[in-house]
Write a structure and sequence with these properties.
The chain is about 15% helix and about 25% strand. By secondary structure, it is α+β, with helices and mostly antiparallel strands. It has one domain: Beta-clip-like (Beta Complex). The structure holds zinc ion. Zinc ion (ZN) binds near residues 133, 137 and 140.
């Protein structure tokens, strides 16, 4: 079951990457980010930031109660890299995550979206350095960590968001690793 929009191969940016197989129109839904659905507590248990770093690229924090771990049951979407000037967005709808083109993408271009790693008031320069960005875009912020503070949402808010998710597309935050680091 191959994706018709992109193929996975070696990338100059980071390990493997996803490359457009044809011209893609803005707004096209390319793939769903899937994997095992787990709780944030379970993702903390599975991955200790201080020991494993690479695994984090396969975690996607959907809301305060759901994390998708693409290490298990993931598809080719897990190989789409981060960029500070991305041609795709991660869109959350009814607690599921989709990768969509946010502009016209030409055949052969590498696909990327902004991982927006969670930033809390406790996020340090060392955290930013650990998640250094090498995307090479002119407006690269130097780190994969989000530019703005993205605090975990409260329960009631998460419910409200679920209801309105179909109407208002929200940008997703790829994982909660810096939050966990901050608490240590
Ligand atoms: Zn960058």
């Amino acid at each position: 079951m191959k994706n018709k929009y992109f193929a996975v191969r070696r990338s100059g940016v980071h390990g493997k990457g996803a490359f457009a197989l044809k011209d893609i129109r803005k707004g096209t839904r390319l793939v769903e980010y899937v994997g095992e659905n787990i709780t944030p507590a379970e993702s903390d248990r599975r991955y200790d930031d201080t020991k494993v770093k690479d695994h984090h690229t396969f975690l996607f924090s959907v809301d305060s109660r759901k994390v998708i771990d693409a290490t298990y049951g993931g598809n080719e979407s897990r190989f789409i890299n981060h960029s500070c000037d991305p041609n795709c967005d991660a869109v959350i709808e009814t607690r599921r995550v989709y990768i969509e083109a946010n502009r016209t993408i030409r055949k052969g271009e590498e696909l990327a979206y902004d991982y927006n790693y969670e930033r809390t008031p406790k996020t340090t320069k060392a955290d930013e350095k650990l998640y250094k960005c090498l995307c090479g875009s002119p407006n690269c912020r130097g780190t994969i960590v989000s530019a703005k503070v993205t605090l975990p949402r409260k329960k009631s808010k998460a419910r409200a968001k679920k209801k309105s998710a179909a109407k208002s597309k929200k940008r997703a935050s790829k994982n909660a690793s810096t939050k966990r680091r901050g608490r240590k």
